[in-house]
Amino acid sequence: MSSSDDALDRYMKKLTELQYARQETLYSDEELKQIAFDSGFTEAEWQEARKRAEKQKQRGKYHIVHANWQDAVEELEAACALTPNDAEAHTMAAEAYINRGGTQQNTEDFRQAEYHLDQALLIDSKYENAFKLKRELNTRRKILTTQTHKSTRNRKLIRWMILGGIALVVIFWYFTSYNSMVNAEEETIEAWAQVENVYQRRADLIPNLISTVEAAADFEREVLTEVTQARSQTLGNPVDPTELNPTALRQFEQNQAALGASLSRLIAVAEDYPQITATENFRDLQVQLEGTENRIAVERRRFNQAVQAYNAKARKFPYNLLGFDTKAYFSANAGAENAPNVTFD
């Protein structure tokens, strides 16, 4: 396989993944081009891919004219995959699926046709050919339904079946959506637990640090007292992970920031005592605290990402009907995306 084919495979795979993630969002020509370049395309290969898509579209049109529906579907699917923002390609693909579905009495083809028509109208909401084929698709479906269901059903039975189906859909939707929101909330709780773990790790290191610096008889007691009180304040005010409201999170941040600031002052004062800084235990604690501060920054960011995903879901219809409250982020003020910094210079 040539490098060009490799790049094309990567492009198609990447585009499929992105389309699945974004679904209702269109890609501009520039975005498609950038995806192609990120997949290893050169400008010449990108242009060649566009030409290939155009040739596939033309061959698909030829097969439609000659009623070769299978060949038309294959060519036009390939064209749509390469150029997903081509309304004409999607419309012709829908036409091929409609005719193949009508010939083979295949409802799956009709579903594929509907998908391509929806894509075409998403690209161009006034695309007349797509509206025309929508009408034809509805007609074909009615014909197929008539052919498939030859016996006449009792209308009252159908009414009750529809109502029962709607009830089942609503029940299924409710439990599925509720469970989905619970899972999203659990992810935020898990992320919060990781935040607490790294902050607890920092708090657990402080007694050892205090014991180490107390080796200097004349060490400033005021600084030690400040660190001890700040640590007690953080440990004495835990946050309920199911109640991550702005007030609770702001208080948590303030307590942790105060502890971080007092810890920074403790380290700064300790630097004036060579008999402390020269000890292996002090240096080891410095390394551990540095690592902990880095982990704090990472876990705060991961927590914010989990909350962002949860909040986005909680606000969207129909999940917003379930009554789940949004949760607070860590502060977005300047520098708040990082944990309180402890300097060991």
Description:
- Helix 3 (43-65) runs antiparallel to helix 4 (69-82), helix 5 runs antiparallel to helix 6 (107-123) and helix 8 (155-213) packs antiparallel against helix 9 (221-235).
- 76% of the residues lie in helices and 0% in strands.
- The radius of gyration is 31 Å and the shape is elongated.
- It is an all-alpha fold and 345 residues long.
- The protein is built from 12 helices and no strands.
- The protein has helices at 3-22, 29-38, 43-65, 69-82, 87-104, 107-123, 128-148, 155-213, 221-235, 246-270, 274-277, 280-315.
- Can you give the helix content as a percent range? over 70%
Radius of gyration: 31 Å
By oligomeric state, this entry counts as single chain
Q: What coarse outline follows from CA principal-axis ratios?
A: elongated
How far apart are the first and last residues' alpha carbons, in Å?
Answer: 54 Å
Mean pLDDT: 81
